Amino acid sequence: MNSTTTVLLWLLLLLNVQKFISAQSFKCTETGKCIHKNEKPDNNTLYECQNACRLTCGRYGALWPKPTGSTIIKNSVVHLNPHKIRFELRTTNANGQEYLNAIDEIFLKNIASECEKRDCVTESENEIVIQYAVNVFEDTLTWDTDESYSLAISTLDQTTTVEISSHTLFGARHALETLSQLITVTNGPSTNFENVLIIVSSAQIKDRPVYAHRGLLIDTARHFIPVADIERALDGMGASKLNVFHWHATDSHSFPLEIPRVPQMTIFGAYSHEEIYTVSDVRHIIEYAKYRGVRVIIEIDAPSHAGNGWQWGPSYDLGNLTVCVNQQPWRSFCIQPPCGQLNPINLNVYDVLRDIYRDLLTSLPHETMHMGGDEVHMGCWNSTKEIVDYMYNNGLGQTTDDFLKLWSDFQSKSLEIWDEESRATSVTSTQKPVILWSSELTDPANIEKYLNKERYIIQTWVPLTSPIPKKLLTKGYKLIMSTKDAWYFDHGFWGNTRYYTWKMAYKNRIPRDRNVLGGEACVWSELIDNNSIDERTWPRAAAVAERLWSDPDTDISLAEQRFYRHRERLVDRGIRAEAVAPRYCVLNEGECT
Ligand SMILES: *[C@@H]1O[C@H](CO)[C@@H](O)[C@H](O)[C@H]1NC(C)=O
Ligand SMILES: *[C@@H]1O[C@H](CO)[C@@H](O)[C@H](O)[C@H]1NC(C)=O
Ligand SMILES: *[C@@H]1O[C@H](CO)[C@@H](O)[C@H](O)[C@H]1NC(C)=O
Ligand SMILES: *[C@@H]1O[C@H](CO)[C@@H](O)[C@H](O)[C@H]1NC(C)=O
Questions:
Q1: Which sites are catalytic (predicted)?
Q2: Which residue has a Cα nearest atom 10 of ligand 2?
């Protein structure tokens, strides 16, 4: 044998090995699971790769979150050429046009992300026509926005028609996200072992969310989280149909949010001049979020969780705006160091708050804000002579009730200023509610004394077994729920907290009540920065997303295979979502349940 023959023989052998390795296939069982088979695929019962099997296997295929209305996904696919996708829309509305153009781009990018690492061939002659029918072109998302949509796919000859109909632009966006999940890459004998995009050739889906508020909180004060990382979180939210980015922007640790009217806030409060969200950053984030179906609610926590950023009062002759800042021993003055609480008796504090609110309302378009209101430490105010003297002069003592009165006065004044600034900057005069964390002030026994239920939405952060949410509902308050022992994703890494798996996050049901607006997963950033934010957040936030979108009462084992697929989708889209099962269990659906 000469060397050329040897090389040829080796090549032949390699090619055969290649075919042999690729002769694996997947079978969709009657219970909707894709089972790994070492058999040569045939064109009816066996799929060449898992993603192709998952695309149409089971009632909900690869969709996450699962639709809440009728869902039919036919077991047939056609090849898709991303260069042969045409979007058709009948509107001359500029808002609508701009929004739809933006979501079309995102859609194309998302399907390209499936191909990026895989080098797809895109030679199909099939044409895809996506037709929109949208009623209203309002592009501000609120608790009243109709997010429902219907999606119909049909294929005739070499044309696949996708009809998207929705009341709002946000419904259309969700439909397009669903459509992207009806597309995947396949590879096997039928494609000559090349990567090819396929799309389900026939489907009908009607869908709408159960809860209007489906949130993710990110804390950018314990650690500054760069804009690019926030963008990735918003990408994941769009992919999972979460719709509220609760931005815990400031805390006692740092104040990274640029306030043009009060530049001192970041000069004194940012970790460095690079760790600041400029007005244009914030605008960009709000815009970026909008095109992912997400609205941004900014929280300026007060009167507690305020310290660094507020220390400049004395040097500007405004007195102490905050008290107990960075004070030690911290346990006597706060729950977590560094300490700091606004000084509610210094009227200059309210002028600064007014400037902050005005900047939020004008330079950063907002319809509501989160006013914080958690963990006021009475020991801090109680140890401040100026405050105790004031209370004494105003007929108050030093009991818990007296401090609650002081706190609620602070809260009333803050709301009044917010209302005044809202009126001054907005065309509508209707008073919108603001959000507050649950606290001693929202204790069901006292809340009616302090907080008007028409004006305050309470975000509860108590354990599942706590009776507080139910009691607040009985009293007629609206709630957003962040079940502490399921949706606090910072847990499991400090103290005696435990890590909540995606299944625990998924199983956490919140009441179906007109006054429960929804819930939020919380990513507190004491132990999280841009090196680990993706892993801590994803894919668990997606488990919360299906809970809030679909609120399924079915067994979690029915969600598992779709969840694994969604996690890989997030990874394809550039999010470092952590693994949730050994590769074997992902490939062999149902075997590790
Ligand atoms: C697909 O299956 C049908 C019926 O089982 C068979 O006649 C046909 O040859 C198959 N086509 C391919 C490409 O394998
Ligand atoms: C402001 O705080 C400083 C430091 O805690 C304190 O020494 C000072 O007396 C305070 N000023 C007033 C007006 O209370
Ligand atoms: C405040 O301090 C006084 C005296 O030090 C104490 O008697 C009182 O109980 C304290 N109040 C609270 C709410 O802790
Ligand atoms: C985290 O952010 C810093 C500062 O912006 C940057 O230098 C670093 O590369 C980022 N790390 C990761 C993993 O993104």
A1: 375
A2: 320
